[in-house]
């Protein structure tokens, strides 16, 4: 029963990807800058945080469970001097939520130490682990990220230089991986051939100074005043050297670009820029598209904070129905490991969202959210809106129905736990207790991306997985865990 209760408390949307950040800047407080970069990327993962800093041939690593502000303070950062820092926020997709699985991963080679931070998920992790079985005694985690690092260590110790070794290690990996790798020879950035997870780069100060920054999203550049230079391309390896104004760029593999479309819909911050514009603009457009596709008579439009707000404003514009703030979010709540008791749940404890009765009472309400995954928290939300006096609740979702799990770095359940894969639309309406429900069409979702409509992975909606995988890896996100380890507390 405890496991079931805990599962029901999980969010009703696709859960986070990880955040990667790095700074290479001689004479700058790189640990502090990386702290702020991770702070901007906190939405991508709240389980653990870590920073590795290079100071000459030495590397210092600090990582722990919790939010960035909980893991680091000024005393810790001051003990991490250097010129190159790699940072990571984690949300687990392979390997359980334990401190040994926190990143960056740091290993030693014949050429010195390196640190690696990974966003994504390998679909051949079991195969790679078998190939590295001779190193199994050195494994300290149950993550695919550590496997990538050991593959790189093996390539370097086998005689290759850093660039060639990274390409060789990447060639052994299949799946989604955006990597920041710090070495004694500089900073490397790498994306898988499909570019499933984002990774951008920019510079601080005068570009000729060669002070480089890597980030999962442009909001990480913005927070430290860095300029955006471009994206690390799908299948591209970039080598940044201190003081050099032009990095070395190598396209090591070419595949059709397939960025995760949920980066556009929900994961990335609305102030991050993709394809030359903020995601706020895209989310506003899909709200307008949703209004055209699924009009309904109502008094007000509200959004589920925060990700549903831009689409709700777009829906309001497209429908002519006024937008209102009907739900208030506790903005000081991150991911909590303290679960409410059953009595608290029955009493209606609302940790993150609270409705406003004076806005909702007597109103026909359209509520906009970015997705429905399991249907549990959406059902509770509808009940709360009715308790606040809403006479009708019409739910509109700014993405298509999620019918397939993701294997490329997003934590989704097995297919039988996805409500849209199990129930018809009418059955979901009854389950949620809404007066009507409509999803954005896949065509509308892609049309709103304009000229970039063919650049996305949409597997969670249509089952068209761009990266092939073995059936065996579809069973569990904890595929690398020893028996019973997943139940161990961090």
Topology, please?
Blueprint: H1 2-8, E1 19-24, H2 30-40, E2 48-55, E3 58-65, H3 68-71, H4 74-78, E4 84-90, E5 105-109, E6 112-122, H5 125-131, H6 144-157, H7 162-171, E7 175-183, E8 186-191, E9 200-203, E10 212-215, H8 218-223, E11 227-231, E12 236-240, E13 248-251, E14 259-260, H9 261-267, E15 273-274, E16 277-278, H10 279-293, E17 300-303, H11 309-319, E18 327-329, H12 342-346, E19 353-355, H13 357-360, E20 364-369, H14 376-387, E21 392-397, H15 419-422, H16 425-432, E22 436-439, H17 442-447, E23 456-457, H18 459-462
Parallel strand pairs: 14-23, 17-20, 20-21, 21-22
Antiparallel strand pairs: 1-4, 1-10, 2-3, 2-4, 5-6, 6-7, 7-8, 8-12, 9-10, 9-11, 12-13, 15-16, 18-19
Helix pairs in contact: 6-7, 10-11
What's a quick, concise take on this entry?
By secondary structure, the chain is α+β, with helices and mostly antiparallel strands.
What would your notes on this structure say?
With 490 residues, the protein is α+β, with helices and mostly antiparallel strands. The protein has 2 domains: 249 residues, Aminohydrolase, N-terminal nucleophile (Ntn) domain (Glutamine Phosphoribosylpyrophosphate, subunit 1, domain 1); 156 residues, Rossmann fold. The protein is 29% helix and 24% strand. It is built from 18 helices and 23 strands. The strands form 6 sheets. Strands 3-2-4-1-10-9-11 form a 7-stranded antiparallel beta sheet. Helix 6 crosses helix 7 and helix 10 crosses helix 11. It is globular. The N terminus and C terminus are likely disordered.
């Amino acid at each position: 029963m405890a496991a079931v209760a805990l599962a029901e408390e999980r969010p009703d949307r696709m859960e986070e990807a990880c955040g990667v950040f790095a700074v290479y800047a001689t004479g700058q407080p790189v640990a502090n800058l990386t702290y702020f970069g991770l702070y901007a990327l906190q939405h991508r993962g709240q389980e653990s945080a870590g920073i590795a800093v290079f100071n000459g041939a030495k590397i210092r690593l600090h990582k722990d469970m919790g939010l960035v502000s909980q893991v680091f303070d000024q005393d810790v950062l001051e003990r991490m001097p250097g010129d190159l820092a790699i940072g990571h926020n984690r949300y687990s997709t392979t390997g359980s939520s334990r401190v040994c699985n926190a990143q960056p991963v740091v290993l030693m080679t014949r050429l010195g130490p390196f640190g690696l931070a990974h966003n994504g998920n390998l679909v051949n992790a079991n195969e790679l682990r078998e190939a590295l079985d001779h190193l199994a005694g050195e494994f300290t985690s149950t993550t695919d990220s550590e496997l990538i690092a050991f593959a790189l260590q093996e390539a370097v110790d086998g005689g290759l230089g850093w660039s060639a070794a990274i390409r060789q290690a990447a060639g052994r990996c299949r799946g989604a991986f955006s990597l920041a790798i710090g070495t004694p020879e500089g900073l490397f950035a790498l994306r898988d051939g499909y570019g499933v997870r984002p990774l951008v780069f920019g510079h601080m100060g005068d570009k000729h100074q060669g002070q480089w920054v890597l980030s999962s999203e442009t909001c990480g550049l913005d927070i430290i005043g860095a300029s955006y230079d471009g994206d690390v391309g799908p299948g591209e390896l970039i080598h940044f050297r201190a003081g050099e104004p032009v990095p070395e760029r190598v396209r090591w593999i070419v595949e059709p670009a397939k960025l995760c479309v949920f980066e556009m819909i929900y994961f990335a911050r609305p102030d991050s820029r993709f394809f030359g514009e903020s995601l706020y603009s895209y989310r506003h457009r899909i709200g307008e598209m949703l209004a055209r596709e699924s009009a309904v008579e109502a008094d007000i439009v509200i959004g589920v904070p925060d990700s549903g707000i831009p689409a709700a404003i777009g829906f309001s514009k497209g429908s002519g129905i006024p937008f209102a703030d009907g739900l208030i979010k506790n903005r000081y709540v991150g991911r909590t490991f303290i679960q409410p008791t059953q009595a608290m749940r029955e009493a209606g404890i609302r940790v993150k969202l609270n409705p406003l009765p004076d806005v909702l009472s007597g109103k026909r309400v359209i509520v906009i959210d970015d997705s429905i995954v399991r249907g549990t928290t959406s059902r509770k939300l509808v009940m709360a809106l009715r308790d606040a006096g809403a006479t009708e609740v019409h739910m509109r979702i700014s993405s298509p129905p999620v019918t397939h799990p993701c294997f490329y770095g997003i934590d989704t359940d097995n297919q039988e736990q996805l409500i849209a894969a199990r129930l018809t639309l009418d059955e979901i309406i009854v389950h949620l207790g809404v007066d009507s429900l409509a999803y954005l069409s896949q065509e509308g979702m892609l049309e709103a991306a304009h000229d970039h409509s063919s650049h996305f992975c949409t597997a969670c909606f249509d089952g068209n997985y761009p990266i092939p995988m073995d059936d065996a890896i579809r069973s569990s996100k904890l595929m690398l865990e020893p028996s019973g380890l997943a139940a161990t507390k961090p």
